[in-house]
Amino acid sequence: MSSELTEKALEQAIADDELELYYQPKVSLLHGKLVGAEALVRWNHGKRQAIAPDLFIPLAERAGLLHDLTIQLLDKAVKACGKINTAKAGLAVSMNVAPDDLESHTISKLIRQYLEQGAITANDLQIEVTESAAMGNFERIHDDLQQLANMGIKVLMDDFGTGHSSIDRLSQLPFTSLKLDQGVVRRMGTSLQNLNVVKSSISMARELRMTSVAEGVESSGAYNFLTANGCEEAQGFFIARPMALDTYLAFVAEEPYLAGSPIGRVHQAVYNLMYFRKCLLDAAFCRKVDMNDLLPSVMQADIDHSMEHSRFGAWMINSKEQLEGYQPYRELERPVKQLFEQGDVFMEQLHAGADDAHLNELISSFDEQFGYISQLLRELERALLLDTKQHF
Known about the structure:
By secondary structure, this protein is α/β, with parallel strands linked by helices. The chain folds into 2 domains: about 5-260, Alpha-Beta Barrel (TIM Barrel); about 265-385, Four Helix Bundle (Hemerythrin (Met), subunit A). It has helices spanning about 5-15, 55-65, 65-85, 100-105, 105-115, 130-135, 140-150, 165-170, 180-185, 190-205, 220-230, 245-255, 260-290, 310-320, 320-325, 325-330, 335-350, 355-385, and strands at about 20-30, 35-45, 90-95, 125-130, 155-160, 175-180, 210-215, 235.
């Protein structure tokens, strides 16, 4: 370590406000649009270029400065949220925090104050905890993470794949997303085994009702593979490098769109459509089984009835600008809307105790729409494949 990077120098840097947050954009792989950014700290040392956190965060920990640094950076992130929302609503900022500040409830107390003051909404800010910190400090951080979740703050597990997660413990923490470590993502091109690690991680996130986020995406090949295999968000140099706030605000104003493989996105849509139907039928099946033979969790159908908030609906709504030139996509709007309406009716009737004959009628009507939508999605795949103007 350079002689310039001393505890005294870092302490002075914190006092002089030399540590700045840079923002690395994240995009949705469902539709290619910006969904937010991760805030990454850099030390803008006067005598050298910005210093990366892996050089000074360990120093801050040893010197007992990490707590003060976290409070300062959280305040910066909250102020940035206001500016970002002015530029474009709906973009979240995520920030990594340490176990000590979770154990002391510093994070939850500060965020509660920001929420009560109206400085942010629960959708503006997200908290990240590394896999190793989460698994190594389970008892210490559990309560604070749960308090954050109760406030509506999303909690993300960072660097997934570098530690030794216990599935049991992972399911007990209120994580909303798994962020696949950049090393894991980069290695997926080196062997089939590494490729399958990524695919299984995406699958596990989905089954745990979490969003999968890939870090370290550095090529169109990686971006397209992740898209086609169900990963939902990504960040990395292929998308954009971390940037200062003013640069990020300009980036946001451009409304960036990262095309990727539209066929891969249709694959995601097909999977999410099938999953929607499966959940409806699972709920109907559960009613016919002796309740004593069912786990209570089985009755919790994993369905978002709102088209706007479901995975399939998000793809449909946000893909209009790119896909409305294709006839099969234009024909999707009416049956998709009807499908979600029928799903609502089916669940209402199921809970109201409708008889089997009525439920069968509802399923038949639902399946007509399901079949028609599936056909249109296959036609859309072919249209995209045959379009000579499309480049993947």
